[in-house]
Q: What sequence folds into this?
């Protein structure tokens, strides 16, 4: 088991977050962190999902995610990419850059 | 203003704007819908008003929305066309959940159209409000909520595209009442963009070549044929692939008829109640070539001991199926018909190039097993009617041209075992979800789709009582289905498990179906012909009598022996190696010979 960060582009439709989280719940995958934000295209949102799974489970969850009609693209972020993207993660301590979180994975 | 060629007598005017409901009806016609199964209610009234006396669209008024959903499934399963069901908000919509989940498990293309409360009332717990879009998220291919009349046409058209393409499945479109009544203004799109939906239909050529490499090296390969081949219309390709390779074939519960039962390479159905030969062939194989199947637990038994020496070639249109339940050596993502065609071509080319293979020992062993362990049953010692005999005679007398639907349980397994299927789309049952009550409404849908075919619902006395209200629909709408109730006065499969695994403690599995209800008078109350048969000598004549009646539905109450059990059987959760041919009788797989 290890942490993986997925960058998921989805159609910016009402209910899409519910659809993604229902999928994770139904297939018994636990979400560690989840951030949803806009992209430069108002029709598209980006979800950054951090999950703690082994590689076989990672393959299963991405192929199930990919089946969702409103999921446009899935990419696994390595730590460096995640830092470069300068996404913000909301946690109990308020916002901090995803890089800090990525460093804490080790 | 006017040109010289204009013949118009009045000034050209743009057509009157349509309401959302009228647009919805026009879109249904545009995508080729001819039949709708449904039941109206408050919120969907505007749509029913637009449907009223619409030429070319026949609405069949069901007695319960679940019946509409299963009828749409039966319609789709018999033809491959998208089945359509309709219901109002709240309870109407929630009654469609079971058929939607059923269609999702068995990859049946249906579109469900529901109306919801006006968008301003949504979220206020209004009368008959249910968030059916969210409720159906995990049990549909996709679900839409439309509150803008301008989005109705595009959403309905896209729903039909999604249902029928890729891996088929159910799609729900929920439309708010105000979107149905409002006028469509201006530039409504014809189709949604669906930027994330790109089903792949052609397998990668390298993967096809890798698959054939494995096939040529194998000594004990099996073609594991699943329901995807039926949905794809790939039966001809399956036949060619089997014949060019000579590989033994097993057909799953969902694929009965995808490969002819009479074919010498057919080893039967695998799984919990499959033939000994099909189960043994998979267990002993060194290469499973899975074609539109999904390694369901009812096929594999305990997964860690399923086919322990087999590598797997897995062909499926759904990439998420590959590797889901079983590690795969080669994955082929594509439509079954195209993919099998690719495999046939590659195999033929390699064969022509002089590459060799030898499956003869394995084929011979399979053939010996099939001789040794045919499907069979014991006649009850007291001379009463055996359910297997009834079903076997039904198949023999009615023939393999007819459509058979079933509910879920013992009668379903016997109908899959003792009726011989030669063609696809003739065996329609609830495989994945296992929905009791499927048979009667599914038969209704199949009969509407194929009015010239004989349609028999093989049902249990338990299942029949869940959905038999649709007999009223059949009688009133002129849908003359035939129903064979295999009446053993019990929830038979539950009882069988209680006999085998719960020390014959028959907790809540007995039904007084020989007394209440009286199925013959019940049938007559519904405007059907009711017949009864409780004697082996009368079976043929009763079936013949039922076959003569074509102006009304017929219900036959076959009163059968209660203790008959479905064999062979792999007890749930155990290894397929533990298959019993009959009670306490383990087959000899011939490993010591």
A:
């Amino acid at each position: 088991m290890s942490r993986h960060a997925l960058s998921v582009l989805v159609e910016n439709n009402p209910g899409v977050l519910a659809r993604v989280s229902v999928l994770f719940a139904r297939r018994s995958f636990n979400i560690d962190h989840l951030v949803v934000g806009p992209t430069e295209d108002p029709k598209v949102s980006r979800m950054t999902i951090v999950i703690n799974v082994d590689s076989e489970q990672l393959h299963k969850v991405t192929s199930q995610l990919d089946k969702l009609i409103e999921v446009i693209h899935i990419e696994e972020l390595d730590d460096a990419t995640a830092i470069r993207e300068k996404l913000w993660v909301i946690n109990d301590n308020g916002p901090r850059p995803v890089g800090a979180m990525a460093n804490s994975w080790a | 203003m006017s040109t010289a060629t204009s013949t118009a007598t009045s000034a050209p005017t743009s057509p009157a704007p349509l309401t959302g409901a009228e647009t919805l009806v026009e879109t249904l016609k545009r995508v080729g819908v001819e039949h709708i199964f449904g039941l109206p209610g408050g919120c969907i009234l505007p749509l029913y008003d637009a449907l009223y006396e619409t030429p070319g669209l026949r609405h069949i008024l069901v007695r319960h929305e679940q019946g509409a959903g299963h009828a749409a499934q039966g319609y789709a399963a018999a033809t491959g066309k998208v089945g359509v069901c309709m219901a109002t908000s709240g309870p109407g919509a929630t009654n469609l959940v079971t058929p939607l989940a059923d269609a999702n498990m068995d990859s049946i293309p249906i579109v469900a159209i529901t109306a919801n409360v006006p968008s301003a009332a949504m979220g206020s717990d209004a009368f008959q409000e249910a968030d059916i879009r969210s409720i159906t998220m995990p049990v549909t291919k996709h679900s839409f909520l439309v509150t803008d009349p301008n989005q109705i046409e595009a959403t309905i058209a896209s729903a039909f595209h999604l249902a029928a393409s890729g891996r088929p499945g159910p799609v729900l479109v929920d439309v708010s009442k105000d979107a149905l009544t409002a006028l469509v203004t201006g530039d409504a799109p014809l189709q949604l963009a669906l930027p994330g939906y790109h089903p792949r239909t052609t397998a990668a050529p390298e993967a096809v070549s890798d698959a054939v490499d494995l096939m040529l090296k194998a000594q004990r390969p099996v073609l594991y044929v699943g329901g995807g081949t039926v949905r794809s219309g790939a039966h001809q390709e399956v036949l060619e692939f089997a014949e060019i390779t000579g590989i033994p074939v097993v057909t799953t519960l969902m694929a009965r008829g995808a490969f002819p039962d009479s074919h010498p390479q057919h080893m039967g159905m695998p799984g919990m109640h499959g033939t000994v030969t099909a189960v043994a062939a998979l267990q002993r194989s060194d290469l499973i070539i899975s074609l539109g199947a999904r390694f369901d637990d009812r096929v594999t038994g305990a997964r860690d001991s399923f086919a322990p020496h087999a590598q797997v070639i897995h062909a499926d249109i759904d990439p998420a199926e590959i590797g889901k339940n079983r590690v795969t050596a080669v994955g082929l993502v594509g439509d079954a018909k195209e993919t099998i065609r690719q495999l046939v071509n590659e195999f033929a080319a390699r064969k022509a190039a002089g590459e060799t293979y030898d499956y003869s020992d394995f084929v011979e062993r399979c053939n010996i097993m099939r001789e040794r362990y045919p499907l069979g049953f014991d006649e009850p010692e007291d001379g009463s009617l055996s359910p297997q005999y009834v079903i076997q005679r039904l198949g023999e007398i009615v023939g393999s041209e007819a459509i058979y639907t079933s509910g879920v349980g013992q009668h379903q397994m016997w109908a899959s075992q003792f009726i011989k299927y030669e063609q696809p789309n003739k065996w329609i049952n609830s495989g994945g979800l296992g929905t009791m009550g499927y048979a009667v409404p599914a038969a209704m849908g199949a009969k509407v789709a194929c009015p010239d075919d004989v349609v028999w619902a093989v049902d249990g006395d338990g299942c029949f009582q869940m959905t038999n209200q649709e007999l009223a629909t059949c009688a009133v709408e002129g849908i003359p289905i035939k129903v064979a109730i295999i009446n053993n006065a019990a929830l038979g499969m539950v009882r069988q498990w209680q006999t085998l695994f719960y020390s014959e403690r028959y907790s809540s599995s007995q039904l007084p179906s020989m007394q209440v209800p009286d199925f013959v008078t019940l049938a007559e109350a519904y405007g059907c012909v009711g017949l009864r048969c409780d004697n082996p000598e009368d079976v043929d004549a009763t079936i013949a009598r039922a076959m003569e009646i074509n102006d009304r539905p017929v219900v036959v109450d076959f009163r059968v022996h209660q203790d008959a059990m479905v064999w062979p059987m792999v007890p749930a959760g155990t290894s397929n190696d533990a298959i019993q041919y009959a009670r306490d009788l383990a087959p000899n797989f011939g490993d010591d010979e």
